[in-house]
Amino acid sequence: MNTEPSAYHQRVAEEKRGAILRAATRLFLDSGYDRTSLAKIAEAAGVSKATLFKQFPTKAALFDAIVTASWQAGDGDEDAPPPGDLRTGLALIGRRYAALLTRPDMADLFRIVIAELPRFPELAESQFRRGKMPYFDSVRRYLEAEREAGTIRLEDPELAATQFLGMISNYVFWPRLLLAHWAPDSAAVESVVDEAVLMMAARYAVA
User: Fold this and answer.
1) Average pLDDT score over residue span 5-13
2) Which residues, in sequence order, are bridge partners of residue 152?
3) 188 close to 116: Cβ distance less than 8 angstroms
4) pLDDT at 114
5) Beta strands in 107-185 (DSSP E)
6) What phi and psi, each to the nearest 5 degrees, are found at residue 178?
7) Rounded average pLDDT over 171-193
8) pLDDT number for residue 103
9) Are 176 and 182 in contact (CB under 8 A)?
10) The overall pTM is greater than 0.90
11) What is the mean pLDDT of residues 77-105?
């Protein structure tokens, strides 16, 4: 007897999970993390409490899932580009990063963490440990692979990754947390990524 879930049941489970994550994010923003119960989230998501508790037995586990989902590239192809062509590889990474930062759920996640930081520092720790650092490490590993391939010279891959991602996020993302109208168009975002690639190549590429 086949005990594996059918494609239909898997799809339904994924839809319910997505509804739970969206409802939780909205309620955490509107009411605060502390004042939002799992029961309220289940009601807002349109699922039973049993369904929610089966997937997320605690509010902390639910927030961890929000972080993980927010930092996924979402294009189905999250592998690092192969080393050997620094400019092409960085351009791909940079465009993926810009697309990730401009998703609405990313700004929402940071707003939740910042608002709750004084009372719930563990939320910031989750954001850093499960979201930001794994993504950062993937970029650092790519730069290390380029170094092994002989395309770049650098002593500090962590610094180089910080420089590259910072050049993009300082324009694409951080102003959004303070300016509600901040929404640069795609041409402006692409230009920022292209300039960041040129800066990295000028600093680190083997001539």
Assistant:
1) 80
2) 205
3) no
4) 92
5) none
6) -115, -30
7) 93
8) 87
9) yes
10) no
11) 90
Tens digit of pLDDT for each residue in 96-135? 999 999 988 898 899 999 999 999 999 999 999 888 898 8
How far apart CA 6 and CA 11 sit, in angstroms, is: 9
Whether residue 56 contacts residue 62, with contact meaning beta carbons closer than 8 Å, is answered with: yes
The encoded tokens of residue 22 equal 């969206």
C-alpha 70/C-alpha 107 separation (Å) is: 9
Q: Which two tokens stand for residue 145?
A: 């692979």
Joined tokens for residue 162: 């910080």
User: Could you tell me how many residues make up the chain?
Assistant: 207
Residue type, 75: D
Instruction: Quote the CA–CA distance of 29 and 178 in Å, as a whole number.
Output: 15
Long-range contacts of 200-205 (CB under 8 A, 24+ apart): 200/86, 200/90, 200/160, 200/163, 200/164, 201/86, 201/87, 201/90, 203/160, 203/163, 204/86, 204/152, 204/153, 204/154, 204/160, 205/86, 205/87, 205/151, 205/152
Burial of 163 (0-12, 13-18, 19+ CB in 10 A): middle
